[in-house]
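Dear H.,

Thanks for agreeing to be a second pair of eyes. The structure we're designing against is below in token form, covering all 159 positions.
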């Protein structure tokens, strides 16, 4: 079974969560997802460049857990399940290398999610382009075909 690409759905006024159609993946709050991903990626870079003491490791574990909880709010049930399966909880004695691995795993998952979103958007763009070409091929009236010459006349005050 091939994985489906996520569909970005803007939040509705009110609860911010659109109705989900069966067998589709959704990103409910794309801007929030991007902010969390940027933070996690930056944290990973900082962790790689420094040696952490016990307090630093505890703080990073808290941030990691809070980031995953915040991510859950932005994802569909299916993507939440996938994230839960991949991200193992860190215990109170996690070493610096365990924390680095957990952060790197989360960054990798997020980058894969973004690549999936980009692929879905590209696919939608190509489908729309093919549909427009088909409409042009069938010969729509001049008012509906943006590529057809209208004799030099242009709508609007500036052209």
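And this is the sequence the design step returned. I haven't edited it by hand at all.
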């Amino acid at each position: 079974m091939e994985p489906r690409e996520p569909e970005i759905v803007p939040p509705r006024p009110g609860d911010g969560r659109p109705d989900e159609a069966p067998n589709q993946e959704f990103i409910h709050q794309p801007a929030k997802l991007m902010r969390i991903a940027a933070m996690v990626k930056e944290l990973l870079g900082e962790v790689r460049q420094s040696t952490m003491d016990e307090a630093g490791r505890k703080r990073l574990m808290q941030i990691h857990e809070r980031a995953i909880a915040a991510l859950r709010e932005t994802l569909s049930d299916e993507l939440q399940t996938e994230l839960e399966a991949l991200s193992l909880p860190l215990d109170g004695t996690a070493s610096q290398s365990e924390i680095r691995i957990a952060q790197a795993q989360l960054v990798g998952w997020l980058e894969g999610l973004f690549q999936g979103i980009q692929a879905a958007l590209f696919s939608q763009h190509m489908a729309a382009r093919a549909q427009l070409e088909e409409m042009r091929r069938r010969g729509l009236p001049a008012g509906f075909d943006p590529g057809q010459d209208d004799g030099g006349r242009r709508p609007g005050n500036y052209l």
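Two observations from my side: The longest strand covers residues 7-8. DSSP finds four helices and two strands in the chain.

Warmly,
E.
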